[in-house]
Amino acid sequence: MTNMTTNIGGLKMKNPLITASGTCGYGREMSELFDLSLLGGIAVKGTTLEPRLGNPPPRIAETPSGMLNSVGLQNPGIEAVLTKELPFLSQFDTAVILNIAGHSIEEYGLIAERLDSAANLAAVEINISCPNVKAGGMSFGVDPKVAAQVVSLVKSKTKLPVIAKLTPNVTDITEIAKACEAAGADILALINTVLSMIIDIETRRPLLANGFGGLSGPAIKPLAVRMVWQTAQAVSIPIIGMGGISTAEDAVEFLLAGASAFQIGSINFHNPCAAPQIISGLDRWCDDHGVKNIAELIGAAH
Amino acid sequence: MLLTNAKILTNKRIRCQADFFLMELSAPEIAREAIPGQFLMLTPSEGDSPFLKRPMGINAIDSGSGRLKVIYQLKGRGTAALSKLRDGETIEVLGPLGNGWSVPAEAKHICLVGGGSGIATLLPLALLLAQDSSRQIDIILGGKSSEHIICREDFPPKAQCMIATEDGSLGRQGMVDLYFSAQPSYDIIYSCGPTPMMRKAAQWALSNNIPCQVSLEERMGCGYGVCVGCVCETKDQQGHVCYKRVCKEGPVFPAEEVFFHD
Ligand SMILES: Cc1cc2nc3c(=O)[nH]c(=O)nc-3n(C[C@H](O)[C@H](O)[C@H](O)COP(=O)(O)O)c2cc1C
Ligand code: FES
């Protein structure tokens, strides 16, 4: 048995595996397949102030070793999430992380100020990859100044540990990472999906109704590992790595690159029981490699 | 819902030109829970190519022997990979998924309208309905040619089967609506098939004030409700548009809730 306890930036977990936002709903469906208390944490679907309809279908397309999605933040709004969804998760011994998103900087603040009343939240994860409607739809996460404004506003409105979740759709992710660190983020999470597109050659139109979508899955793993590596060199706050993890070995790679914990996303679609399998696989891998404490692996490749 | 490794008992081509395949699986726990109209997610390959599971409507449920059947048409990489699996191999199966057809006890005179691989999902419904001998069942099937009218030997003998093919190779030449009578007296109409067919069946039913259920298809990420990728456009009671998950709130919807887009 390896010591897998992970205690980073005020977020305590029994192991470093978190199911990624948008890939595990609010836990209900997965709880039919395995005990959610096995998870280090669960990051629930991106939540906005008001209910959101999301993008029209088709929203999903398969790609070589991955997939594109343009779900577009369909969610019932913060009030319903706090009263109808989160209470279900209180029966499990796992860190519940609320992923939040907004159309404007103010919207993030208005959601954040509601969170300290929730009984079972372990952290808030800010999705800064969504479009800033007031700034012509450009993502909050591509401008270090705007990213920092969102982080410091959320930080001022809640006592929860704040995770800034970064988009890979930038020239230099370390610039955004440093801005979020300076603005008070406790933890960084990366990467979100990679802006992509598929064209249906029969209809000669983009395949997804929204045109563009976010690429995820094994296809983006090397890109994600590179960004975690670079970010680990640029900041001193802990990192949660993700992007294409599908096995315990993939997770080890992220830890070696400098992540202290990791999230699994699209693999939950390929294999709904991936989470418990990766946790036990990680334990086995560590045993086989003489690793007593998972922390020994963090950043060991640098 | 559970995830199991099912043994493949049969995996064979059942139509030469139309590329339909039949797969029979041994999956006792799933067979015990499954009801007509539900579906399975099959993993075509253990690796990440293709990456996503494939939804398949259940074509036959035998809870006694623990067997399930699905019928699929070769359409892309997923079904191509499925078609290469051999008898005796195992395949990862998630199921049973979705809501399934609902059958009002008082429905006695019933019509089923099906086309394409949708015919396969109507079969277990027809067999269930036929268990009540007081029911009268009419089945209207349509397709490009006789090759596309699958399962027709398996429908209950007492049901009246009407067939329309575009090339006239079986039944009457034309579309299923050839058989849509002017004043139908059905208690309920069920439909599963290509969207234009379901739209016609729904219009026929609703314009005659007959309840109608349709089974929808959409691209799926997970099949069990977590990705919100498979939504269809529906209207709520106030007529507002809302997106519902085909894999969870569906695949069967009351026809009046659905906006049909081709
Ligand atoms: C269908 C889908 C929905 C997602 N929704 C969200 C979301 O609401 N908020 C968010 O921050 N990330 C969202 N993501 C991104 C994932 O959390 C994750 O960052 C990304 O998929 C990369 O990890 P993976 O390759 O393991 O899937 C979504 C991803 C997918 C595939
Ligand atoms: S396919 Fe994922 S929610 Fe329906």
Question: How do the helices and strands line up, and which of them pair or pack?
Answer:
The complex is a heterodimer of chains A (about 300) and B (about 260).
Chain A: E1 6-8, E2 11-13, E3 17-19, H1 28-31, E4 41-47, E5 60-63, E6 66-69, H2 78-89, E7 95-100, H3 105-112, E8 123-127, E9 131-132, E10 138-139, H4 144-157, E11 162-165, H5 173-182, E12 187-190, E13 194-197, E14 199-200, E15 205-206, E16 212-216, H6 221-234, E17 239-241, H7 248-257, E18 261-264, H8 267-270, H9 274-288
Parallel strand pairs in A: 3-4, 3-18, 4-7, 7-8, 8-11, 11-12, 12-17, 17-18
Antiparallel strand pairs in A: 1-2, 5-6, 6-16, 9-10, 13-16, 14-15
Helix pairs in contact in A: 3-4, 4-5, 5-6, 6-7, 7-9
Chain B: E1 2-13, E2 20-26, H1 28-33, E3 39-42, E4 54-62, E5 67-73, H2 77-83, E6 90-97, E7 109-115, H3 118-130, E8 136-143, E9 160-165, E10 172-173, E11 188-192, H4 195-207, E12 212-215, E13 231-235, E14 241-245, E15 252-254
Parallel strand pairs in B: 7-8, 7-11, 8-9, 9-10, 11-12
Antiparallel strand pairs in B: 1-2, 1-6, 2-5, 3-4, 3-6, 4-5, 12-15, 13-14
FE2/S2 (inorganic) cluster binds near residues 223, 225 and 247 of chain B.
Biggest β-sheet strands, sense, barrel of chain A: 8 strands, parallel, barrel
Low-confidence stretches of chain B: none
Write down the overall mean pLDDT of chain B: 94
- What is the terminal-to-terminal distance of chain B? 31 Å
CATH-scheme architecture of chain A: Alpha-Beta Barrel
Order of helices and strands of chain B: EEHEEEHEEHEEEEHEEEE
Q: What is the name of the CATH class of the largest domain in chain B?
A: Alpha Beta
Which strand-content bin applies to the residues of chain A? 15-25%
**pLDDT below 50 for ≥5 consecutive residues: which ranges of chain A?**
none
CATH topology description of chain A: TIM Barrel
What sort of overall outline of chain B do the alpha carbons produce when their principal axes are compared? globular
Query: Could you spell the SSE succession of chain A in H and E letters?
Result: EEEHEEEHEHEEEHEHEEEEEHEHEHH
| Helix fraction of chain B by DSSP (H/I, runs of at least 4) | 10-25%
Bound molecules: flavin mononucleotide, FE2/S2 (inorganic) cluster
Which superfamily, in CATH terms, is the homologous superfamily of chain A? Aldolase class I
Number of domains of chain A: 1
**Helix content, binned percent of chain A:** 25-40%
Number of helices of chain B: 4
